[in-house]
Input
Amino acid sequence: MRIYTLLGIIGPSIAYFFIGISIYSAPWFKWSKHALSDLGHASRPESALYYNFGLAAAGLLVAIYAVTSLMNRAKYASSSLAASAFSLQLVAVFDESYGYVHMLVSEVFFILLLLSSLVYAAEKRSIIALLSFTVGLCAWILYWMNLYEAGVAVPEIISSTATTSWIILSAVKRLCKR
Output
C-alpha cells in the first residue's frame, strides 16, 4: 500500500523535525560539546518531550515502513532497518538519565544503522547506501581519532542523515514506480 511506502519519507522527516524543535528550544545545546541525546534527558524539560517523542514516533513509522513496503523489495535490509528503528525507540525510552543503559541502546542503534546501510547496499547493489555506510563510518572513525573537535552530536547527525538518504530514496523510487 502507498501509505506504508510514504512512511519511509514521513518517519525520518518526523525525527529531524522534532530534533530541530528540540535544538531550537534548548539554547544551551552546542554542537561542539553535546550529544543529541542531551536534548532528551529528563532533566531538560524544554527539549526532552519533543526529542523523545520525535525519536519514538520516527522509530515506529520507519519500523512499519521496513516490515511492509521495504520487506517486499529488500528482505534482509528490511529486517536490519526494523531492528534499527526499534532501537531508536529504545533511545527515546531509556534517555540519558538511565546512564549505561542509554549508552548501550544508543550504540546498538548506530551500529544497526550502519549495518542496515551495508546490507541494503549489498542486497540492492545500491551505491547510495554504500556511500551512506562509508560516510557514516568515516564520521565515527574521524571522531574517535579526535581529528576534529566536536561533540558526539556531529557524528550522530552525519551518520543518521547519511542513512536517511537511502531510506527516503528507496521510498521515493517505490512511489515513482506506481
